[in-house]
Amino acid sequence: MKAARKTADGRFEIAEVDEPQLPADDWVKARVRMAGICGTDLRHWEKAEEELHCCIMGHELAGEVVEVGPAVSRVAIGDRVLVESVLGCGHCDWCRVQQYNRCPDLYPTRRASVSRAYAEYVVGPQHKFHRLPDNVGYDDAALLDTYAVALHAQHLSGLTIGSRVAIIGAGPIGLGQLMLAKASGATVTIIDKMPHALALAERLGADHTLHPDDEDPEAAIFGQTDDRGADIVFECAGGESMPDTLPLATRLVRRGGKVVIVGGFDAGAIAIPLEWQRIQMSEITLIPSASFAFHDIHAEQVEVLDLVTRGVLKTQELITHRFPLDQINEAFEAAQDRARTGAIFVGLTI
């Protein structure tokens, strides 16, 4: 099959590789039709990482079932499916209670099967394949990993109707966070440096949008909240901006409020100075949020599929670019340079 493999310099090469085979009788094979590029993928872009050399990457995907094992009952050949790529080892203490996003072996496990979206075929256990309703396309479904990340963060936050919310970052996760918060009755201010992203946030229902070069975020948020600060701040930018955006989040939140850390970090020790005395004396809660899993008895991936099906979450408005797999390097360049390209969500047709 055709696949995009990481090169030594962190870009991609198109290669012919062995097609994956079903390793168990309850596994499924799907033909990938659409895959997304997210912030995690971009943090590995053009970085020389020996452990990823020749790996097939990508974890936002949808496709069509082409083969099933004899014990598969959830899906059938020909079904259009969303493929959930958060797959734990299945036997650790966290996986046993459906907290598989906390599995110690999460990344090696998922990269061995379902988290290989930049290729023609993937395999995985049947419980990770979810049928798509007729009104949800492959491109819509490719956004649902992102939306499930935002839903998990909202569940952790305890957001309720009337909450005053600030969101830092208007990429796909931040915009998903915005739509979920608005659907739950919150008042939302979203902060970003990209005018095209802020314009989209307005169209998606943001009560206030804020460019930090044009307006002081602290003055604006405190002015909107009776000089108290936001009840909940979602940090959705992540990556290289974290040394600035995480301290900002702690300054925007009210006493007794919550900061939810949704944006991702690079591996290793990272020093980010915070006003720890103020955080402690104000009893501000810092909540790390990692990927998604289950909320009570509900799979968060299935919950966002339902929200898209019912029109609560929008998708097409976020999809700004589509590239064929052969142009994956151009796709990553477009996603990386969003100030020039106006990119929000970049998809790969496979």
From TrEMBL:
Gene3D superfamilies: Medium-chain alcohol dehydrogenases, catalytic domain, NAD(P)-binding Rossmann-like Domain
Its EC number(s): 1.1.1.14
Keyword annotations: Metal-binding, Oxidoreductase, Zinc
Enzyme class: oxidoreductase
Domain Enoyl reductase (ER): start-end pairs: 10-346
Cofactor(s) needed for function: Zn(2+)
InterPro entries: ADH-like_C, ADH-like_N, ADH_Zn_CS, ER, GroES-like_sf, NAD(P)-bd_dom_sf, Zn_alcohol_dh
Single Gene Ontology MF annotation: L-iditol 2-dehydrogenase (NAD+) activity
Family indicated by similarity: Belongs to the zinc-containing alcohol dehydrogenase family.
PANTHER family recorded: L-THREONINE 3-DEHYDROGENASE
Record-given protein name: Alcohol dehydrogenase catalytic domain-containing protein
Record lineage: Bacteria, Pseudomonadati, Pseudomonadota, Alphaproteobacteria, Sphingomonadales
